[in-house]
Amino acid sequence: MQDLAESAAERRGVRLRLLRDDWQHPELPGNKWRKLKYNLLAAREQGHDALLTFGGAYSNHLAAVAAAGRLQGFRTLGVVRGEEAPALSPTLQQCRADGMQLHFVSREAYRRRNDPAWVAELLTTLGPAYVLPEGGTNALALRGVAELVQELNAAGEAYDALTVACGTGGTLAGLLTGLDGRRQAVGVAALKGADWLRTEVDALTEQAVGRRYANYHLHHGAHFGGYASYSTELLGFIEEFYLRHRVVLDPVYTGKLLVGTLQLIEAGHFAPGSTVVAVHTGGLQGWAGFQQRFGSYPPAAV
């Protein structure tokens, strides 16, 4: 864990720390490994030798599943949103290098990814497999994420709140089940118009442990225009953060997480004297895609 000397935190008397959960597994960084852990065990227990999942051309989840398949001995099948481009994204190139079979579908067809009948058709075409949802979020994923809280508590770490970037809401929901009503959790939405996240988080915790929690807050002020959207301000923050702390953030999730956490500190959301832990969930493989599309503006360390 790393202490962050940030002026907003110092002014407000808040201790801000960064948990490098992206270091948890050398090839499956951060929340992706935690989400996959118990799903992989379930897949093996059910006799599956293949994993099927969904994602876009720059998906951290697809990259993680492909790597997990290579490491754990599963065949992997990736259903990719959109037609196949003449040049694959760096993410999809790595997925193929890790052995993933890519199956491209139209955006219209991809909207049916949660339709059991459509998924059954895919399995008929591609062969039997253990199905992982987009982003890897399900009840078993929450069980893996909850272990982060258990590890913090076992290490005797003192903290009052955890903050995490929110895409599907699965990581936040997992943290809530680990906290079990104690302390506070904050999800910083990486998407614009993500008011549905609260309903999703509540549904996930109810499915996983049979209850909803009130000890969390969703922050919607750091999405910078929407999922995978960015701005000069966000990129400048990421660059300055690296120069101060020698920690690389990404513009899809963790950059927005730290901006949002500092916004809440500045606004007095956390009481003076409290300790806030921001969870770095990884996602740095996405920088290769940004470089491919827009040029070499990320921090020099990437």
From TrEMBL:
InterPro entries: ACCD_DCysDesulf, TrpB-like_PALP, TrpB-like_PALP_sf
The family this protein is said to belong to: Belongs to the ACC deaminase/D-cysteine desulfhydrase family.
Entry annotated with the keyword Glycosyltransferase: no
Superkingdom of the organism of origin: Bacteria
Segments forming domain Tryptophan synthase beta chain-like PALP: 9-282
Listed name of the protein: 1-aminocyclopropane-1-carboxylate deaminase/D-cysteine desulfhydrase
Positions annotated as active site in the UniProt record: 59 (nucleophile)
Cofactor field: pyridoxal 5'-phosphate
Organism per entry: Hymenobacter edaphi
The keyword Cytoplasm is assigned to this record: no
GO MF term set: D-cysteine desulfhydrase activity
Keywords attached to this entry: Pyridoxal phosphate
Positions of modified residues (N6-(pyridoxal phosphate)lysine): 32
